[in-house]
Design brief:
80 residues; alpha+beta; three-stranded mixed sheet; 46% helix; flat
């Protein structure tokens, strides 16, 4: 329950930053790497972290209209 509430709060903050900073030409996006096998989950994740990093790279290097105020994941983007 705690994780879901903090995740919701984080999404709300990101949306507000995206709207507030848009006039200053900032691009605000988020990325979802998926459930990657890392030492944080005893390597039980379903995918290689290098594959998960692709969403992060796309959220940072994508064109503004493709990533601003969006959640970037492996298959594309989703609105917040």
């Amino acid at each position: 329950m705690v994780y879901r509430s903090t995740k919701s709060a984080l999404n709300m903050i990101m949306t507000q930053y995206a709207k507030q900073l848009e006039s200053e030409e900032f691009v605000v996006s988020a990325s979802n790497p998926g459930y990657c096998a890392t030492n944080l989950n005893a390597y039980s994740g379903l995918k290689d972290p290098r594959d998960g990093a692709k969403a992060l790279i796309r959220s940072v290097t994508g064109a503004k209209e493709d990533v601003h105020c969006l959640m970037v994941n492996e298959t594309g983007t989703e609105a917040w």
